[in-house]
């Protein structure tokens, strides 16, 4: 009996929810907590800064610490995913990043010099970045295995939009907890949620071929539609089921890093993430220090752009797949929403032209909506990555993209301290919307890369 026949034994086609949608719901939920963890300091930052005595520049470095390690760890994270598969690597990643998040709650419980407190949180944020590094490449790997090409745009848009939903959901909660009980309890809550999700992932997740809930009809829909169902096939299984992996040697690196389409993805993803990191680091601080809002108000105000970013992210993915179904080329279906969205994102610069807090929040909301629509980098990566090194390529893209998480918080920290306002910082962030257009131009036609034999 073949692997699929044995896996499909006893399954019924039924009218129940397809398993791939439940898989997507699970990685969406994990990604929501993932982004809540990495953005937790943006909401609690003012309170942490006040209690522990951080300067503005020190806070900027602490904000950037996550991305230093996140970028460096992308390539080894991708190698681990290609070697061991998403199920095991994701589980360990989730457990470790949750433990580090929980540890932040203990910093400063005993009277601690400022430099030691800054260093401790900086190191913990470094570890958080390292341990979270496989998460998005793993999401892309799961989407590549579980979804046919015609559904992959919306699938990647949904898990990518979790970053906005995380802020919309958790910003008010974290603001309220910080206001009522103190910032430490935010990290305790995130620790409990993370460990619960790790247990669920290990108990329920499997490959499309081996998952007991997948019907034969669903398996056929995925595999015939371009889903790489054996991407995470176990090495101990049927040799024909194991996805061929490219050797990571000089020839492989040369083919990956000489691909024009990938360089276009790297540039555009860097630009998209520059806006992301403004919103998950300095935006709440801007509302407190630049606009005079209270911390409790910030928790709710920060949710507005996030909700629109969430809606924009879903719209971009669904619009892209709809264009594919209507006969547009893959290149047009991915690039048209991306270009439109990033043009909208540049509207953040208009905040410098008004003193109205209500109008500023509206412009930020429009910019974040546009950034959501234009965030199709993960869909494009799953469309063009060679199957033999899909996670390595995804990790490379994520490394380039998240370099923005190093640059953006530090640049903003220095400019705010030097100028005493956020004006220059907002122009800097808005310019990345135009940089994304350069990346889309460099990208050229979107099609699957195949290594030379």
TrEMBL record:
InterPro entries: MFS, MFS_dom, MFS_Na/Anion_cotransporter, MFS_trans_sf, Sugar_P_transporter. This is MFS transporter. It comes from Saccharopolyspora gregorii. It is a multi-pass membrane protein. CDD domains: MFS_ExuT_GudP_like. The chain crosses the membrane at residues 21-37, 57-77, 89-108, 114-136, 157-177, 183-202, 261-280, 300-324, 336-353, 359-380, 392-412, 424-446. It is found in: Cell membrane. Residues 23-448 form the Major facilitator superfamily (MFS) profile domain. Its main location: membrane. It comes from the Bacteria.
């Amino acid at each position: 009996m073949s692997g699929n026949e044995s896996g499909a034994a006893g399954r019924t086609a039924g009218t129940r929810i397809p398993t791939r949608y439940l898989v997507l719901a699970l990685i969406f939920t994990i990604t929501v907590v993932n982004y809540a963890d990495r953005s937790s300091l943006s909401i609690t930052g003012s309170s942490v800064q006040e209690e522990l005595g951080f300067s503005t520049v020190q806070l900027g470095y602490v904000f950037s610490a996550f991305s230093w390690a996140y970028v460096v760890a992308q390539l080894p994270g991708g190698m681990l995913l290609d070697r061991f598969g998403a199920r095991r690597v994701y589980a360990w990643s989730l457990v470790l990043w949750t433990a580090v998040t929980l540890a932040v709650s203990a910093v400063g419980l005993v009277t601690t010099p400022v430099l030691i407190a800054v260093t401790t949180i900086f190191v913990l944020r470094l570890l958080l970045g390292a341990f979270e590094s496989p998460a998005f490449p793993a999401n892309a790997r799961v989407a590549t295995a579980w979804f046919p090409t015609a559904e992959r745009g919306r699938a990647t848009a949904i898990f990518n939009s979790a970053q906005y939903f995380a802020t919309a959901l958790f910003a008010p909660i974290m603001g309220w907890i910080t206001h009522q009980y103190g910032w430490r309890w935010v990290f305790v809550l995130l620790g409990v949620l993370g460990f619960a999700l790790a247990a669920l992932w290990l108990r329920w997740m499997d490959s499309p071929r081996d998952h007991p809930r997948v019907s034969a009809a669903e398996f056929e829909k995925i595999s015939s539609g371009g889903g790489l169902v054996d991407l995470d096939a176990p090495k101990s299984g049927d040799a024909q089921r194991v996805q061929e992996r490219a050797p990571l040697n000089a020839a492989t690196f040369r083919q990956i890093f000489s691909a024009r389409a990938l360089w276009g993805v790297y540039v555009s993803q860097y630009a998209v993430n520059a806006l992301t990191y403004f919103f998950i680091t300095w935006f709440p601080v801007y509302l407190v220090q630049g606009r005079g809002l209270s911390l409790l108000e910030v928790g709710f105000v920060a949710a507005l752009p996030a909700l629109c970013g969430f809606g924009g992210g879903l719209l971009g993915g669904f619009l892209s797949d709809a264009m594919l179904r209507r006969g547009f080329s893959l290149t047009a279906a991915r690039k048209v929403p991306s270009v439109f969205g990033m043009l909208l994102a540049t509207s953040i610069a208009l905040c410098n032209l008004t003193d109205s807090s209500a109008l500023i929040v509206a412009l930020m909301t429009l910019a974040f909506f546009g950034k959501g629509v234009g965030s199709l980098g993960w869909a494009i990566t799953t469309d063009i990555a060679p199957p033999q090194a899909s996670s390595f390529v995804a990790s490379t893209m994520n490394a380039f993209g998240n370099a923005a998480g190093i640059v953006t918080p530090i640049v903003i920290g220095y400019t705010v301290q030097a100028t005493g306002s956020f004006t220059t910082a907002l122009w800097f962030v808005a310019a990345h919307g135009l940089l994304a257009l350069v990346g889309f131009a460099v990208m050229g036609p979107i099609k699957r890369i195949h290594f030379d034999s």
